[in-house]
Specification:
about 240 residues; alpha+beta; 5 strands; about 50% helix
Length: about 240
C-alpha cells in the first residue's frame, strides 16, 4: 500500500540533474553565440579576401606596414609588425565609386564603348564578358529586378509541392512557344539548403499558388530545410 509520502514523490516532477542542466545551458548559449560568431567570422573572412585582392595593386611604398614603419619606427629599431584589415575594403569602395562616376560621364561612356568593341572581336572573351556583365547588371542594378513573389508549385510530380520564386512573366520566343493566350511565369526553384542553385521553370499562372509570406521569409524556410517558419505559429484549422 502506497503511503502519502510515496504519493507526494510521484506527484512532484523530477528536477533535471546537473549534467542535464549543464547541457541545456550549453545549447542555449550555442544558439546565442553561433549566429553572432558566424556573422563576424564571415565578415572578417570577406574583408581579408578583399584586402588580399586589393593590396597587390598598391605600390609597396604605400602599404600600411611601410607607412607606419616610415613615420613611427625609431631609427635602428626592429620593424613594427602591422596587420591592418579593412583598409583594402575602403580603397576598393573608393576606387569603385570613382570608376562609376567616370563611367557615367561622356568620356567614360565613350571609353567603355571602345573597350567593348574590342572585346566583341574576341570569341571566348566576348562570351565570358557578356555573361558576367548581364549577371552584374541584374544583381547590382538599382532597378526593380528582384523576385516578385514566393509561391508553391507541384514539383517534381503532381501532389508534391515545393517553394519557388516568381521572377517575371515569360517573354519572346519562350512565351510564344508555351502560351495559349494565358500568362506564363518564369519561376526559380531553389535547392535546399543552398538557394543559390536550382532550376529555371516556365509555368502557367494557373499552376502556381502564390504565398503571402515575403521572399525573405520563404528563403529562410528553404535554407533551414523547413525548420524556420515565418510566424512560427500553427495555421488554424479552416474547418473550425
Amino acid at each position: 500500500m502506497k503511503t502519502e509520502f510515496d504519493l507526494d514523490k510521484m506527484s512532484k516532477p523530477r528536477r533535471p540533474g546537473f549534467v542535464a542542466r549543464l547541457r541545456g545551458n550549453f545549447l542555449a548559449g550555442l544558439i546565442i553565440i553561433a549566429p553572432i560568431g558566424l556573422t563576424f567570422y564571415l565578415i572578417w573572412t570577406v574583408v581579408g579576401w578583399i584586402d588580399g585582392w586589393v593590396w597587390p595593386f598598391v605600390p609597396d611604398a604605400y602599404q600600411p606596414d611601410a607607412l607606419i614603419n616610415r613615420f613611427f619606427r625609431a631609427e635602428g629599431a626592429d620593424p613594427i609588425p602591422v596587420n591592418v584589415r579593412g583598409i583594402g575594403v575602403f580603397i576598393f569602395l573608393l576606387f569603385t565609386v570613382i570608376v562609376g562616376w567616370i563611367g557615367k560621364g561622356f568620356l567614360g561612356r565613350s571609353f567603355l564603348r571602345w573597350g567593348e568593341s574590342l572585346v566583341e572581336r574576341m570569341p571566348v572573351v566576348r562570351s565570358i564578358y557578356n555573361g558576367v556583365k548581364q549577371i552584374a547588371e541584374t544583381v547590382f542594378s538599382q532597378r526593380d529586378t528582384s523576385f516578385d513573389k514566393a509561391c508553391l508549385i507541384e514539383y517534381p510530380r503532381k501532389g508534391i509541392w515545393a517553394i519557388a520564386f516568381i521572377s517575371v512573366n515569360a517573354k519572346g520566343e519562350v512565351y510564344k512557344k508555351l502560351s495559349d493566350g494565358s500568362e506564363v511565369a518564369t519561376v526559380f526553384l531553389p535547392t535546399t539548403p543552398n538557394p543559390t542553385s536550382g532550376f529555371l521553370l516556365f509555368l502557367p499562372r494557373s499552376d502556381i499558388q502564390e504565398l503571402d509570406m515575403s521572399v525573405e521569409d520563404a528563403a529562410k524556410l528553404v535554407i533551414s530545410a523547413g525548420l524556420v517558419y515565418p510566424n512560427g505559429e500553427p495555421v488554424e484549422d479552416v474547418d473550425s
